[in-house]
Amino acid sequence: MAVPSAFPPPVDPQGEFIKRGLDPEEDLIDVGVAIVGGGTAGLSCANRLLALLHSDPELFAELGDAPVAVVEKAKVCGAHAMSGAVMQPGPLQELFPGLSREDWRREHFAFGEVKGEAVYLLPNATSAVKVPAPPNFRNHGNEVISVAALARYQQRVAEEAGAYVLTETAATQLIVQDGAVAGVRSGDMGRGKDGQPLSNFEPGTDIRARVTVLADGVWGHLTGPAIREFELARDREPQVWELGVKEIWKVPRPLNRVIHTLGPWPLSLNPRHGQVGGAWLYPMKDEVTGDDLVSIGFVVGLEYRDATTSAHDLLQLFKTHPLVRRILEGGERTGWSAKALPAGGFWSMPKLSMPGAVIVGDAAGMVDTVALKGVHHAIQAGKLAAEAIYEHLRSGAPLDAYESAVANSSVGRELWRVRNARQPFQKGLLRGGPAVNLALMSGGRLPLGRLRWHRNDGQDMFIGESARSYPRPDGVYTFDKLSSVYLSGNSTRDDAPNHIRVQSHVPRELAETWRWMCPAGVYEIAEDAPLAGDVDVIINYTNCVQCGAITAKGGRLTPPEGGDGPLYTLA
To answer: Which residue among 123, 376, 388, 511 is buried most deeply as judged by most CB within 10 Å?
Structure first.
């Protein structure tokens, strides 16, 4: 048996990632509100909160020199952020009402309004059947954006408004004192592979805050421990995950529509393989350079059982289809990125507040994976969190007002409508498809009740045949993992400590799962390892782009040293 959950990683979540009590006063950094994560949700919270504080000079002054601090582990905000992404524009227009959609494009984070769209069924490697767009894939009037570029814009606006943005700073521990969150501790800098201090060593610091916002993304290094510490997931379904790999192509001919594909190709229809996923092609007109770009990506659910399932290689295979080849022909790949995303939806969202803190965006699982939409939810949740925090600071109103605000907002309403729309796919594409369609057509009214989720790490893995169909990289249209990591701008220090936790001696089936799943080639198996039984796993952790998929299949991604990881630009 090779069930990932039977081989838990060597990690103590509560002991390692929860700090009990604060350091002495003279060793602290005091801030008003600490936001962990400089992505879409965290920076939306920062910008809305600063707007409110500027209208209340007395409270603004009361919060001190750093009324709002954003703690971001990447080199710049957005460097680790990735999404498709076609965004519903409303929440961003509300957040920045003085900014037009033309301004978005001039600021280089938006690339055109969706004016045409198509959905194709791909029965095999050569055929494509155009089908009517289901409700979840209707995008007319939405905007193609880059979340990485949007975050950089939001960072600039927040800093101009008085935010204290701490980039290259990993939040490694949640500080809990007297039963409430009291802030976070930043990680040490300058340790070697063995964990010992180097000559440039700098210890971490306690950052005390009146309120902490956990916006640390899909794998929430601190959100996970917070959920366990405050029992925020009682009576919730387990969270499940998907993995997306994306490329940016510069093309000689503009793509004039948004395209989604429904498969079954290049996935297997065999329910034993457990493969579910799909692909996209989005047009991107760069108004700054004049270039015609295409965002192309593939997403696969991490509930699969065939150990040779690889989102990266499925994307390369997808690009060999004539439909895709015609779009990319004569073009050049200019960007690559990979990221996991939460797929559990409404039933898997934890309680969103706890004493002293709230959770926003992907960290809370606010993604509709049936529609491939989460950016507008992240913006809206960040905005609502800021408004609840402002009232809490101003009048002592309870932070759990944020939960009610989310439930009554577009976030709560839209996720409620698709609450049972993704779970049936755990039975496979053919058996689950009719129930998915029923959920979408009925607006969530059917099927009745609450459909359960099965944990991604509870599947018994086997070595299947998926890898036999993957194309050999030609360096023109199809590429290997290492050349792709190079395009990500990854700059992890060669002698940094290992931030990946896995058991190093596991059944071959599990080792193959990690080897194929990782889009960055982090996991290897020695050439002389036995073909069956237990094998040793080699971890090339400096390749890691921190997609987080390992956490769904038996490992754990922990906070790296600040500044390590990819440097995404148009992801």
So the answer is: 511
